[in-house]
Amino acid sequence: MPKLWLFDLDDTLFEASGGMLHKIHLLMNEYMCRELGMEWEEASALRRHYWSVYGATFLGLWRHHGIDPRDFLSFAHDFDPRLYIQFSGCPAEDVKRLPGRKVATMPGPCLKRWSLTMLWTAWWPALTCMRWANGVRSRVA
């Protein structure tokens, strides 16, 4: 029996077809245009490049531009997720039925803002999970 369930809530617990990830990408581009002074197409290409190289856009922005990941991730997730969440059944009940501890990871402010904290034994901000998993990185080498 599993002792620990680790959930990454960005596009795993809820169906991707609802458009939430697209909304996050738009906000990421907006942030990059504002903070890095670039055009939309350039921001979009750089976002995809950093995702491809690091497995997380914020890692490239942090390493190459000194962007504070907490600021970036808070901005990119600042919307009402109920407009985008699609699911079948009752995810909250499904999670509650799982044996063991349930830990969610995503940008910390999002869990609070999205009122999801009640489902989990604990939640870890994304940066904490990446440090815990052998350094600040997303893709496993």
Summed up, what is this model?
The chain is mostly helical and 141 residues long. The chain has 7 helices and 3 strands, in the order E-H-H-H-H-H-E-H-E-H. The chain is 49% helix and 9% strand.
Based on the model shown, name its key terms:
elongated; disordered C terminus; 49% helix; 3 strands; mainly alpha; three-stranded parallel β-sheet; 141 residues; 9% strand
How does the SSE layout of this entry go?
Layout: E1 4-8, H1 20-36, H2 40-54, H3 57-65, H4 69-76, H5 91-97, E2 101-105, H6 108-113, E3 122-124, H7 126-132
Parallel strand pairs: 1-2, 2-3
Helix pairs in contact: 1-2, 1-4, 2-3
Question: How would you describe this protein?
Answer:
With 141 residues, the protein is mainly alpha-helical. Helix content is 49%, strand content 9%. α1 packs across α2 (40-54). The longest helix has 17 residues, at 20-36. The chain is elongated. The model is unreliable at 127-141 (pLDDT under 50).
Helix count equals 7
Low-confidence stretches: 127-141
Main beta sheet: 3 strands, parallel
Which geometry do the CA atoms define?
Answer: elongated
Helicity, in percent? 40-55%
**Amino- and carboxy-terminal Cα gap:** 28 Å
Sheet with the most strands: spatial strand order: 1-2-3
Q: Strand fraction band? A: 5-15%
| Count of beta strands | 3
What structural class do helix, strand and pairing data support?
mainly alpha
Order of helices and strands: EHHHHHEHEH
Q: What does the oligomeric state look like here? A: single chain
